[in-house]
Amino acid sequence: MTPNRILVVDDDVSLRRIMKMQLEEAGYQVDLASDGQQAYEMLREQKHQLVISDLNMPTSGGIDLLRRISEDDLQTTLIIITAFGTVETAVRAMKMGAYDYVTKPLDFEALTLVVNRAMERQSLLEEVRNLRLALDQKYGFESIVGRSKALLRVLDQAARVAPHDTTVLIQGETGTGKELLARAIHHNSRRKNKPFITINCGAIPRDLVESELFGYTRGAFTGATMDRAGKIELADNGTLFLDEIGELPLEAQVKLLRVLQQGEISKIGSSHPVKVNVRVIAATHRNLSSMIEDENFREDLYYRLAVVPLHLPPLRERKEDIPELVEHMFRKIRERHGLNSVSLGASVMPHLLAYRWPGNLRELENMIERLLVLAPRDEIGVADLPEEVRKSRPSSSALLLDLPDNGISLEGVERELIVRALERSGGNQTQAARYLDISRRTLAYRMEKHGLAPDPQQAERP
């Protein structure tokens, strides 16, 4: 889009030319149209930040143009030009979305002031749209990296539930991205422009949980010198994300149940309930069913929270996502620290695939950042990996296979592996057998089974 571009629409040729001259002197780029239809076609072809249109024209006037701009969401600001006797119609145009109006005969100094204000408004609108787009990209489901079936299944369920106000319980190990999924659900809901309030139930001292969640009134306890809203009230009309819900004390669980059942809270020190409209998304790494059996979590609260339960798989169950995750994290962290010359050696990936990643995505990201900032050379190798990752022995379980839906030949896969191992070892059977973690005799037998003739010059060389 060319910045500060204005489209002037008027059937008066002389007035159009004068306006073009005046606005160009003020530093704007100006295009001209003779009626609303021509203006509409020009707006479809090229974006203009501002349109100045006469209200009444013989064919297509300003009201019709305004309606079509609104229907097609052309994202421009419109100023109406009107004669004094049709001000009421101009006001109606403003109610339909026009920014302002000016009357004939035109005061070009006043017009320039209105145009400057309209341009400032349009610039702010553009900034808001860009920020919203950035938020959508950051917190949308597409920001969650990975294409494994285990992950896509969860994302599909989350995308379906997002537009509704249904309560969601996200379960998964520490570091699997539960908060990121919760934010994606919020930003794809009807509440996306309302607050997203997070509270970590395990990070609040036990005696402060209720005041943090529900708030308090002045004089409710020593030190309460003023009324204070709790996190639930702050999330009114938006989304409340209760992270580590399994750490919530039983007495607070009773009050949270009331929020879910009746949509109201009771502040500490007040006998008057306050109505709230919040969508609750909870998350935990704990086994809530076991906690219910041990009487550490209320069964009725569990069923209120788990209307739609989502389970985020640990990284060890979606290893086919690791290469893409590593590339994404490596690029992001490298740019953040200005280390664009550092690369990741090809020998590293098999070890990353073999490691179990008990800390999941968080552990992977932290390790990549550590590797980058401590890199002694431009290429990170196996020797630079943490000991526990370096010692993870690459095995067939770390092999990435694209399994077709219509089945696959196990015999064919075995033959292909042997062929590749032999190519890798230059035809040396001893080295190929060592690479495949089988005996040389077993390799010879399987080569014979698959009709693979040995290279006589390479077969016996150690």
Automatic annotation (TrEMBL):
The keyword Protein biosynthesis does not apply. It holds the Pfam family Sigma54_activat. The keyword RNA-binding does not apply. Residues 144-373 form the Sigma-54 factor interaction domain. Keywords: ATP-binding, DNA-binding, Nucleotide-binding, Phosphoprotein, Transcription, Transcription regulation, Two-component regulatory system. One of its GO terms (biological process) is phosphorelay signal transduction system. GO terms for molecular function: ATP binding; sequence-specific DNA binding. The modification 4-aspartylphosphate is found at residue 54. Residues 5-119 form the Response regulatory domain. InterPro entries: AAA+_ATPase (IPR003593), AAA_lid_NorR (IPR058031), CheY-like_superfamily (IPR011006), Homeodomain-like_sf (IPR009057), HTH_Fis (IPR002197), P-loop_NTPase (IPR027417), Sig_transdc_resp-reg_receiver (IPR001789), Sigma_54_int (IPR002078). It comes from the Bacteria. This is Two-component system NtrC family response regulator.
